[in-house]
Task: inverse folding
């Protein structure tokens, strides 16, 4: 049974400005494993990655009904499967988590669906 759905839309340039102003911003949003991926990227792709993780974690918190605040960015970890699909490797939800992240121009959108296991 679907128990939550969250969507988030974020400007990549806004995330890039936050990162340029405070480089520790990435460490606030990303786990150690995510930081390892982030540091292996360059330029626009690096900012798309950071904005995508931000947006996906925001969408997850919306699906949980709590928002960021009760949940911390570090409570969630998004890695990549062999086929390139992102997935929640760590989250406070015990059921299935479905994730989609899309980039277009200066925007990134993430959608998260939470399914209770019966």
Result:
């Amino acid at each position: 049974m679907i128990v939550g759905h969250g969507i988030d839309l974020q400007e990549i340039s806004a995330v890039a400005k936050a990162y340029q102003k405070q480089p520790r911003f990435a460490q606030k949003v990303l786990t150690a494993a995510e930081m390892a991926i982030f540091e292996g990227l360059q330029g626009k792709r690096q900012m798309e990655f950071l904005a995508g993780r931000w947006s996906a974690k925001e969408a997850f918190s919306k699906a949980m009904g709590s928002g960021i605040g009760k949940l911390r960015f570090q409570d969630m970890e998004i890695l990549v499967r062999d086929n390139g699909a992102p997935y929640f490797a760590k989250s406070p939800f015990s059921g299935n988590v479905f994730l989609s992240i899309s980039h277009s121009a200066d925007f990134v959108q993430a959608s998260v669906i939470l399914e209770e296991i019966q």
